[in-house]
């Protein structure tokens, strides 16, 4: 299959549940592609190296840790897969969703699909990845330098969270994000009403699609 | 430099695959330019500033250098730092550096001078600073100077001065030459290093000085019986007070102390002792590691100690100091600190950093769990294998497998202790319950004995009154018992629904969805008349799977723990979210939901869960009563209005209205006219609203003909200020 000028044939199917792996692999096979069910994942760096060297594309579940299948969750692999130019879609059901984890890595997850049965969404996802590798963004994913106004900061737990309004995206909706996506030297400025500039895909259609990166403090 | 190879050659670029920026060059080489990377001065500024986690952390990097140099003390002096232009001096009595070590080590950025596999003479494992934090510190002043007295060359000193202004007139960092001067000191007594950061660019605020004092005190684990041989000192008034506070050490007054150890095989053992040192619990690997009992922890050997303080006034007896003093001490130093090879790693255990999720666990299950406010602890790790690697910006460890295993070890130890404490608390509760019955019977005996001494006429009157009181009390108790039972039943139903929802929306539904798709795909090529024979059944199965997915996700969205966090909640946003979640039900029942929301982003001080339970229970109520209306006729309207000091939320429908119950009684627990109704939905609404300082009102016949419920919620303090 040729997607956005790139030949895709060998596809890795990554899921900690054998039955989901098998049923997803059947779907991929019906797309005239060659699926490989990844039965053991190993450390993240080995996993990414294998994906880069052996496969053209990846379909990866988010929850991978059960029964010791992997030591990391799927979303965490995406920055490395993205930087290694491996088109990948994160396939996750509502019950698996971890909004903060997704926000943290969303910049590197061009496509998040809720069902592997939606083959069109998978192909669109891979295509979005390939185009982004060439700096061709869809309007929903294009990063734009924009104002981010902090509404509240919750430092009370391990996962420290900030809440902000991104007026360029929605003047009313509060967006939640993990504090550690902000550069360490700027975190001390995170307080209500502080203004930052960040790269945000202000064309995002839902809060879950939104990413924020490259924060700059503007007082 | 250019090496000429004669005639011009032909250049060919070959693409490596479809990665546009990867090219290789095939060429007949004509000339060679010997080149090196050069760095603009801005890169130094940027590195220094972007990796600066605050002045306290930058200065701490210089203090860590003193630790690596085997110093026993390191003093930080602050002079006039309350305004720009002040000085910071860092002095240690370590091994010092000679000219070569300054040139090839101290001035080299991005590489550690020390080998973490080799211990120092004092047996320390070097922290191995890469020099970036040092750069951030050196840039704090307009000038920096280093004076070092190497122990290897008694009577000799080396001096280096850096005037950052000299970099202003150059483009590249290496255009500025730095000189290391060698001088004779005239005495052989000195050893160590003095660093002076002169002319601070920014003043140090009180908060920053306090943070520095705290970081210095905690740097080499000042608590517990064994202290390290390294003492950092801050020459500032804040420090003395804080040092006294930490040295006062309330450790011996802790109610409980947990000590858990993981050995090099990844096996864990733990014990808990009380304030007298008596053993309370002891646990083995299989008991602590829970369901993963057979699995070892893949982290370096470590010890986790936690001192817990119940902070109940009643428990502060002879052996205890005033709770206020302990609370203040915990406020300053509480939390679980992490020590790697003897030095504390920032930010674990800082105020607001709860890396073991102690507070979150306590929120989820408050009983018998420590929090960062009532405990202090440390995780001590010693390793030379570099399994734990700190991030370049010194914001903690890289989230490696080893680090998550270390966190798992500490978290599992806490869980183990919480399980045992909960078990004991439950035993205590059962005992109290049994004792209460006995005490009540005993009290009755005493009362009857007292009554027998009362004159017979009066006695009969009192006995009648008493009997009447007992009947009323028994009736109240019975009602309460029924209510508790009802809540238990509902909680069980909720937990079971959530468990099933989680299971079903996870893997089973994925498999079902994928397999139906595959069956449909493959059947099309093997089954004749697929469209008439199989397609309708496949489509029905697909639709049912979709409906199941929605059911599961709505159930799960209601129990999202994040929603229980107190915050300013925009009412309209919650109403929209609930409406969206209910949309599939509305569609299924052919029911119209009209939203007329006029509060914008106005918030109430609440939790999303509380507002959601108000909206969801009112909607559930309307949906039930609209069930018997003809398809397409049922309507619900949700309206929000901004009032003077609050938000008015009303839910109206065109159902039968309130029947056989008054608008006042409809809120009472257990009052229901529904078949199999619990009578709790509207009570939950009322209780949630009252908790938020609001009020409720019901009308039998509202504006749409059916029941109408109105809720008033006061706006948050933020809105009042606005």
Can you walk through the features of this model?
The complex is a heterodimer of chains A (219) and B (722). Chain A has 219 residues and is of the alpha/beta class. Chain A starts with a strand and ends with a strand. Chain A has helices at residues 18-30, 44-54, 74-83, 99-105, 119-133, 184-187, and strands at 2-3, 6-7, 10-14, 34-38, 57-61, 88-91, 112-113, 144-154, 161-166, 170-178, 195-200, 212-217. Chain B folds into 5 domains: 2-33, no CATH class; 42-237, Histidine kinase-like ATPase, C-terminal domain (Heat Shock Protein 90, 2-Layer Sandwich), CATH 3.30.565.10; 249-392 and 401-424, no CATH class; 454-541; 562-721, Heat Shock Protein 90 (2-Layer Sandwich), CATH 3.30.565. Chain B starts with a strand and ends with a helix. Mean pLDDT of chain B is 81; it is low at 1-25. Chains A and B meet through helix 1, strand 10 and helix 6 of A and helix 11, helix 12, helix 14 and strand 19 of B.
Structural Rg of chain B: 36 Å
Largest sheet of chain A: 5 strands, parallel
Number of distinct helices of chain B: 18
The appropriate CATH architecture of the largest domain in chain A is 3-Layer(aba) Sandwich
CATH topology of the largest domain in chain B: Heat Shock Protein 90
Sheet with the most strands: spatial strand order of chain B: 9-8-7-10-6-5-11
Provide the number of structural domains of chain B.
5
- Report the portion of residues of chain A in β strands: 25-35%
Uncertain residue ranges of chain A: none
Continuous helix count of chain A? 6
What is the highest CATH level, the class of the largest domain in chain A?
Alpha Beta
Describe the secondary-structure layout:
The complex is a heterodimer of chains A (219) and B (722).
Chain A: E1 2-3, E2 6-7, E3 10-14, H1 18-30, E4 34-38, H2 44-54, E5 57-61, H3 74-83, E6 88-91, H4 99-105, E7 112-113, H5 119-133, E8 144-154, E9 161-166, E10 170-178, H6 184-187, E11 195-200, E12 212-217
Chain B: E1 2-4, E2 11-15, E3 23-27, E4 31-33, H1 41-50, H2 55-68, E5 73-79, E6 87-92, H3 99-106, H4 132-138, E7 141-149, E8 156-163, E9 180-184, E10 192-200, H5 206-219, E11 231-235, H6 237-248, E12 256-262, E13 268-274, E14 279-283, H7 285-288, E15 302-308, H8 323-333, E16 335-340, E17 343-344, H9 358-364, E18 375-381, H10 401-452, H11 456-505, H12 507-526, H13 530-533, H14 535-558, E19 566-570, H15 571-588, E20 592-597, E21 603-607, H16 608-625, E22 635-642, E23 646-653, H17 681-691, E24 695-699, E25 708-714, H18 717-721
Parallel strand pairs in B: 5-11, 16-18, 20-22
Antiparallel strand pairs in B: 1-4, 2-3, 5-6, 6-10, 7-8, 7-10, 8-9, 12-13, 12-15, 13-14, 15-18, 16-17, 19-21, 22-23, 23-25, 24-25
Helix pairs in contact in B: 1-4, 2-4, 2-5, 5-6, 11-14, 12-14, 15-16, 16-17
